[in-house]
Amino acid sequence: MDVFDGLPDPIIVDILNKVGDVKTLLRCTSLSKRFNSLVPQSESLILRLDHPDSDSPVTSIFQSLFKSFHGLFSLFSKPAKPIPVTALSPSLPTKILSSFDKIRSLDVELHGGDVKLEKGAAVKWKAEFGKTLKSCVVVAFRSAATVSSPVAADGESDAEFVTGLKTRVVWTISALMAASSRHYLMREIVKEHEEMESLVIRDLEGEGTVVMDAEGLKEFRNTEARVEDEERVVKNSRSVVPSVRMSMRHAPSLKLKSGICLESATLVIVRPSGEYSDVVGDDAELAKEAFAGDCMYGEAVVALLKCKKNALEMNSF
């Protein structure tokens, strides 16, 4: 007797939830009739969109997932070739996840690289969405180096701020465009899987993260988009970014307690214009939560929150 066959179905489904990886779970459907019936009941999934492409991303991935078990094995053993986020269609994750009907939690991993930077520079961001952008926190710097005598963050003159303002605005716009592209990619999944309560889209390189909680997912499903906004969405292959107000803090040289010095360190907190708050505590709470658990970026956020705040506004795009 196969002892595994003696386990109740709910325990098997719980094990599958711990596995999470969509590729692995789809392989499991070929093992037996029982697994073929239980895999679609998985509630917690991890989808990694890093498959090799041939003629087109949609064709290669869709076909690969529905080949024979032997074909799947040989295909997935090949080195994965990243697919640019902008080349992906919202129908792609929908097709891949079509076998699953009880998704409650979905983590998606993508290859980043959307934000174009000079050599040595880094940008990291986290955005929250409902029907549209609810907030975005961006931390960026030109370069990082180890120093022997770390000190507190310094301020800057108005002239120094203006000199680097263009670059900081470009960083912010690039992050917002990257976030809206990821939000657009998941639109069909959100509408189709109405039981889903958590959606997180991460860049494999750690560049950016998009989150949608239960409230945001519900808002997306229940809010009708304006016709002109929908036309812009389809044309640009990304969600519309509403008019926003940005709270920007910057230090020309930020020396952290860890001994790392960040040049042109920048913290930008973005909210829709109608929902912006001038309360300092609101900025601090949002920024700290966005990078909680990340030692260097978390420390940079705390230090930058002590710098002078500059408010900017940006029209919808």
Word description of this protein:
With 317 residues, the chain is an alpha/beta fold. 38% of the residues lie in helices and 23% in strands. The chain contains 12 helices and 10 strands. The protein has helices at 9-19, 22-28, 33-38, 57-65, 69-76, 91-96, 158-185, 187-192, 214-222, 227-236, 280-290, 295-304; strands spanning 44-48, 105-110, 122-129, 133-141, 143-146, 198-203, 208-212, 244-255, 260-272, 309-314. Strands 1, 2, 3, 4, 5, 6, 7, 8, 9 and 10 form a 10-stranded mixed β-sheet that branches. A hairpin with a 4-residue loop joins β8 (244-255) and β9 (260-272). The longest helix is centred in the middle third of the chain and has 28 residues, at 158-185. The radius of gyration is 22 Å and the shape is globular.
Oligomerization status of the protein chains: single chain
Described by the principal axes of the CA atoms, the overall outline is globular
Order of helices and strands: HHHEHHHEEEEHHEEHHEEHHE
What percent strand? 15-25%
Organism: Arabidopsis suecica
InterPro entries: AUF1-like
Protein name: F-box-like domain superfamily
List strands and helices in order, with pairings.
Layout: H1 9-19, H2 22-28, H3 33-38, E1 44-48, H4 57-65, H5 69-76, H6 91-96, E2 105-110, E3 122-129, E4 133-141, E5 143-146, H7 158-185, H8 187-192, E6 198-203, E7 208-212, H9 214-222, H10 227-236, E8 244-255, E9 260-272, H11 280-290, H12 295-304, E10 309-314
Parallel strand pairs: 1-2, 2-6, 3-7
Antiparallel strand pairs: 3-4, 4-9, 5-9, 6-7, 8-9, 8-10
